[in-house]
Prior knowledge:
Ferritin, 6 helices
Amino acid sequence: MGAIGRKIVSNAGLNVDELIDLLNKAYSDEWLAYYQYWVGAQIASGILAVNLIPELEEHANEELDHAKKLAKRIVELGGTPALSPEEWYQKSTCGYLTPKDAEASVLLKQNIQGERCAIEVYNKLLFLVKDKDLITAHLIRQILEEEVEHEQDLENLAHDFQVKIPLCEEKCHCAN
Ligand code: FE
Ligand code: FE
Ligand code: MG
């Protein structure tokens, strides 16, 4: 734990344990997003799969990097990143959309939903910390930028594939 690093955050008026909890929820989302992309890239089928797979693999790597950055910040603030997959599932806001249908257009829809949820989560978190914890704010802003890019990348593919993506289909795991 960075003792003074933690103190400046609490002195600025944030409940540090609550912040750690929110960061751990996001950390859990990232691991589930990582696996959803990773396993999707292994199983994707159909004529669109060849276009989709490289994007899924790229996003998987970026979600894993988000998890790493969140873990670092959680430790700096004196917390412990969620230590088991059970905890990821329990803490996650965006959940896990099991890719039961490996058809590329179905995977694409599920992944877009996940990104939209992630954008909402990080946007809320950014507004919570933006005037009080500049280090976390910087980190969250970097992640948020990448989640917006992920949504855009997948929307571009949906457009190329002529797959219609309603704003919130099936069960929406969105934050609110
Ligand atoms: Fe992410
Ligand atoms: Fe993402
Ligand atoms: Mg991309």
